[in-house]
Amino acid sequence: MVRAAVLPAVGAPLEIAEIDLPDPGPGQVRVRLAAAGVCHSDLSLTNGTMRVPVPAVLGHEGAGTVLAVGKDVTHISPGDPVVLNWAPSCGTCHACTLGEVWLCANALNGAADVYAHRASDGSDLHPGLNVAAFAEETVVSAACVLPLPDGIPLTDAALLGCAVLTGYGAVHHSAQVREGETVAVFGVGGVGLSTLQAARIAGATKIVAVDVSPEKEELARAAGATDYVVASENTAREIRALTGKQGVDVAVECVGRAVTIRTAWESTRRGGRTTVVGIGGKDQQVTFNALELFHWGRTLSGCVYGNSDPAKDLPVLAEHVRAGRLDLGALVTERIGLEGIPAAFENMMAGKGGRALVVF
To answer: How far, in Å, CA of 253 to CA of 317, rounded?
Structure first.
């Protein structure tokens, strides 16, 4: 039996419970978690913004050590350090055949599986976003397990599973920031801090961080921000003033709110690019009129998982970490146990801190 954070129903508080995990079957892997990041997507699952079958063990950003492998698993072995990939590509759907693996139609099919049972009553449990990382151990599809490149601390490597892939990919794959361009990043949480670091790595000359909290300025500047703006109704005007009244070349929105998306779009120059990373609810409606769309010539695009291919991007990120360009530890503002997850959710809703990391 292992301890896990269970979501019994949408809107219900998390429960720390003991669960029974089966031995890995064919094509499966059992992993002992070293750490798991607390992501806004986990919060979105608890409140119903995103829906998966429940009861479920949440957590999708994790790293650990392989304990056992099932039949036909050949790319990893017991004892190997690994990063969990919550959105594995099937390789056969239309998006995958186009090379757009981040849009795989079957990536989350595993969330409907029964992967474990409550020890107390034998009731079924689903694996949240496929990997159920809010637990001491988990059993996942082999497709959800990526070998951790050498030289990366195992605990901090958990952040590579979502925040860093998303932020780095938003800059390098979706927005395709070029050296010398200007960038604004809206939201200085785990993904936002990763995005700031990625913009710095890309060679952006001016990097403006925007957040509702003045207390996050030090975090943002340490990640690469050259300027900091406390969000207000004048945010777009302030950003244009910082860029010769033109606006930034690229804005990356990491919040998922209609007003923030609209402000990010208004903060870009004529012909600029806005990438939306934040996951908002259906009630968050963003409006534009036809004339402004024509006149400004801006591009507005969504960004799923950083438009990344984790298998290809993980070695690239690892090289940035080893070279000192990417600081994983700088994203973490608190290290907690399973019992600390509800408080981490509250801090997230209050706009406090960067990434909370559950350390086992």
So the answer is: 21
